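batch_manifest entry 22 of 60
target: Glutamine--tRNA ligase
source organism: Psychroflexus torquis
requested by: lab member K.T.
priority: normal
notes from requester: please return tokens only, no post-processing; we will run our own comparison against the previous entry in this batch. if the run fails, retry once and flag.
--- input ---
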Amino acid sequence: EEKKSLNFIEQIIEEDLKTDYKVSDLKFRFPPEPNGFLHIGHASSICLNFGLGLKYKAPVNLRFDDTNPIKEETVFVESIKSDVKWLGFEWAEECYASDYFQKLYDWAVELIKAGDAYVDSQSSEDIATQKGTPTQPGTASPYRQRSVGENLELFEAMKNGGTAEKAHVLRAKIDMASPNMIMRDPLMYRCLHKAHHRTGDDWKVYPMYDWAHGESDFIESISHSFCTLEFLPHRELYNWFVDRVSQPGQLIPKQREFARRNLSHTMVSKRKLAQLVEQNIVNSWDDPRMPTISGLRRRGYTPESIRNFAESIGIGKRENMIDVAHLEFCVRDDLNKKAPRVMGVMDPLKVIITNYPEGKEEWLVTENNQEDESAGEREIPFSRELYIEQEDFKEEANRKFFRLKLGKEVRLKSAYIIKAEEVVKDEDGTILEVHCTYDPDTKSGSGTEASQRKVKGTLHWVSIPHAEEVEVRLYDRLFSVEDPSADKDKDFLDFVNPDSLQIGKAYVEPSLKSAKVEDKFQFQRIGYFCVDRESTEHKLVFNRTVTLRDSWKN
Ligand code: ATP
Ligand code: MG
Ligand code: MG
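--- output ---
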């Protein structure tokens, strides 16, 4: 059996299984807030939680942490569901923190009755200054000793919208001198007279994250609640809240923390990505430059490449920055195995084969993917007039130029050996055509002695009368620096790369006419491309997923 070392999260679970947990107790959740589209950072959390689910055959809930009606929308819920599915995972139950609003409210009433919560009627500024500092204890609110009866009456009025939005909050009564600042009477509820995407106008009070999250885990019998490191100081409060509502013998969820993953030359924060969309710096949440799951999907990433990426960077205890080149490596690696090879020319130079009969065409056989025998073969048309890339021809060049030059030979991929005989130029000296001859005995795969002849250099090409003109969208880093948020004196938007999108055209072989949205190809010698959803019947649009090699320099 394969012995793979366990990451520290798996070690925690293995330890628990040795002591007080059964495998059948295990249950996990992925808890996004529906305030934006999921990004590559979320992919780490999704792969962690659903990966554990698969490993232990344990259920994993998809829980929408929808406690803030100001920023949450149904479109985000839908996109999150579609992204998790596309990544290849299945949730046990679709849950919403908002489904627990009544239960949370009832529990809050119990806390008030037990003397564990009170209504504070100070301004948020006063509450903040009374919090103290890590070395100085806080100051008790003058409302801390409010009677249970008055608290209950006020809280109900708050719930019904009978009080002004900013007039009151509900706070847990814990310890204003706690060394953990988060334990100094944290907020449980605030008033918001705002419609919620699921509960409409039912509620005028909304629970805070700390109150809602652990209780939601408890309601769903989640055994292990994994979150990112910034919640470490919240763990004490998480436990305190669950302790208030649980009975002996019930499964108590355990919060454990892992490090957030960051990706270079981009931002992994829904809030910041939302700014890029709102300010039209990108066209949409699924713009192929975005580090969102849907953007990567549209760019041509496969679910496997993203899962492999998450797996390879692993789960850590310390926050770090992953070079986006590593993500690109993962997709290149996957597409190399999967993507059919096709020929397309982006920067065309006309070649005329002068000894090839006018009006003749022939269909040559070529393999679809040399990395995958099962991919089969297809036919490509050859004729007297072809395009090759401008950069593949020079009138004169040194011995290291293994492409076409005057008087020398190259092989055209899956076709013939041709020799450049002369160039035709316009009055400015720009090369308009290269006139070549071909050797009819050198047809690839024909088995003749001449076809085995070795020439340095094989070029891709397309037959002009058969070629299809398509749009190509070439992408560069969205930000010109590794960490756009590193400089605290500057706005991350100052570092947006103004040239992250370049639109061009290409001439491609006719087999691509039937390509469908999201189909992926390797344009030989150029890169991997994916059919964009903005393609029309008349014009295909291709997104370049990634170049063949890592050619990008800082
Ligand atoms: P954002 O600031 O982008 O909204 P978030 O943590 O507030 O991030 P949530 O929707 O609350 O976003 O996240 C759902 C889950 O994904 C949480 O458990 C969160 O900790 C995890 N997560 C979010 N971003 C990352 C990241 N960059 N790396 C790893 N896990 C992440
Ligand atoms: Mg957030
Ligand atoms: Mg969050």
